[in-house]
# Entry
Amino acid sequence: MGRIPCCEKDNVKRGQWTPEEDNKLSSYIAQHGTRNWRLIPKNAGLQRCGKSCRLRWTNYLRPDLKHGEFTDAEEQTIVKLHSVVGNRWSLIAAQLPGRTDNDVKNHWNTKLKKKLSGMGIDPVTHKPFSHLMAEIATTLAPPQVAHLAEAALGCFKDEMLHLLTKKRVDPFSGMPQVTGNNGVGYASVSGNDKEETIEKIKLGLSRAIMQEGNGDHHVVNNGKSWALVGSHGEASVMHDVYDPMLSGDHGFRYDAPAYGNDVGEASAWSQSLCTGSTCTGGVGEQQAGVIVEKEVEVEMEEEDGEEAEGRKINGRKGDEGGMFASDCVLWDLPDDLMSPMV
DNA sequence: AAGAAGCTCAACCGCGAGAGA
DNA sequence: TTCTCTCGCGGTTGAGCTTCT
# Structure
């Protein structure tokens, strides 16, 4: 015996809700509450499935919902929680008053995922792409590493090209192109430039893999030395990342949840402009966005003091960190949610 | 100016958990 | 203990809108 449908499909209206339907549902719920969703459409005079009514109410009609843009703080919360609990949207939404799981999920899928990818961070694991590559590369013989880079390029090329060609920045200088009318033009990447871009991506990826695979955690970015903190992705922190396309007028900064920065801390998600060469310069040299300044190491050392003590209290001292914020003390989450998951 | 491509978000679908008979 | 039913969740879809070519 199969599962019975939640309602008869025949007399049930589907698709967009009309204002009249919204009114009927809202006024019925205002009077009777949301006790039995199966009965609500019948009693409210709606030709809708109960499930559809519930969805409309919870995602749109509820009076306590926010409908505007997500704020930086909300985005930051989403990213941090996502790194801990994964795609458990209802859990994440519960931390954001007025937001629904659907809102959060849509925002993640349409905006945040791309932002993180654009910063060279894998939105699934919250690790820099090059760390992932490096982890794989450590299991390979050197000749295979080059093939890995090639394969990785196959995966990321389209997205990278997309970002580069649509970012409205010159992919190589990192500066917005100035045109006559509005001051900011669009980088047009010709066929040759595209090929050149691909070559740079290849080169950069190969270098990143080689260097990390060799345990060399310093990379050179346009003459500036960057330090990768740790070797297991525990510090997938980007500092001074600015991308005018991805973040609008704001610097978009990714602070790894593993650090447990307070939400209100000024550093996180705050405006942090940087020079073009540092941020959006040649992708090859940028190591696919893996940019962690040495100051991070200092922060980590300092953190060993008071804050580390705080972690001990939470019984999380000694966790290896990894990609998940096992030592994050920000969120009052149940223990089962704090365990690493992919 | 028009068609194509990309993007957003409301809505749908199927499944699993949990309550209650 | 088993079965039925409801609810809630996460993944997916597609209409409508915007941007690009």
About this structure: DSSP finds 14 helices and two strands in chain A. Residues 163-191, 215-252, 257-342 of chain A have pLDDT under 50 and may be disordered. Residues 129-301 of chain A form one domain.
